[in-house]
Amino acid sequence: MPQCGGVLRRGALAPHPSRAQRRPGRPGRRVASKGPALTRIGIITQARMTSTRLPGKVLIPAGGRSMLDHHIDRLATTGLPIILATTTNAADDPLAALGNARGVEVFRGSEADVLSRFAGAASASALDVVVRVTSDCPLIDPAVITRGVGRFLELDDPHAHVSNVLTRTYPRGFDFEVFSASALAEADENATDPAEREHVTPYLYAGGSPRASIHSITQDADASRYRVTLDTPEDLTVIRTLIEEHDAAALDVGEIVAVLDAHPELAGINAHVEQKKLGE
Questions:
Q1: For residues 227 and 270, is the Cβ–Cβ distance under 8 A?
Q2: By CB count within 10 A, which of 91, 156, 192, 265 is most buried?
Q3: Torsions phi, psi of 80, nearest 5?
Q4: CA-CA distance, 192 to 196, in Å (whole number)?
């Protein structure tokens, strides 16, 4: 199991990554597996400027830092390499520049065919195991990711799909999925439905891959009613308030949920927002 050191504690996040966290050019962290091969694990996060409901959202500031910077700050504490998968569009040049400045790997691919973008990023970084996250989760909890990676490695199954997405107990905004690069390549080769191409993983968990083995990461207290994801102006108000008034950039998921529990007026701002469904 990788020594991710991913438990997020108040004050644990530095405003900028240390040199040890900056890993340009490294294909992935090597971790001994049960067999003779080495496992290369990396986090791929997708980002683009052309969001339909809140364009440019990942570069909007909160607490003096962009949402994408907050996202990278938190991912960096896992100790795993980060690959920023953005598009070849000129509009996304600022995202590539930010990724390069932060010392994370940058891969650029199709805007519409996000599955091919992920598969290309995994191949270019020579990953064996992919952790998929999205950049509209600026307060994602690295400890939850670490737990998912540990579970995937315990299973020792290239067809395993580990996530906290399919059985929801965490708020939106803490989503992750872990799967093998070989399963991702198979999906890229065989998935034909436009929704499968756009949303990356439906082929893996919705029956397209007959060998897939689904494993959910859950927590005892169901907090799935909350939104801490950035997709609308209402979401922005909630996340910016969490960061600027409640120091959420230094809180873990349990502490953020506690803030929302204590401030129902804040949680109510985006309670009506519906997540886009597959194909929308």
A1: yes
A2: 91
A3: -95, 150
A4: 7
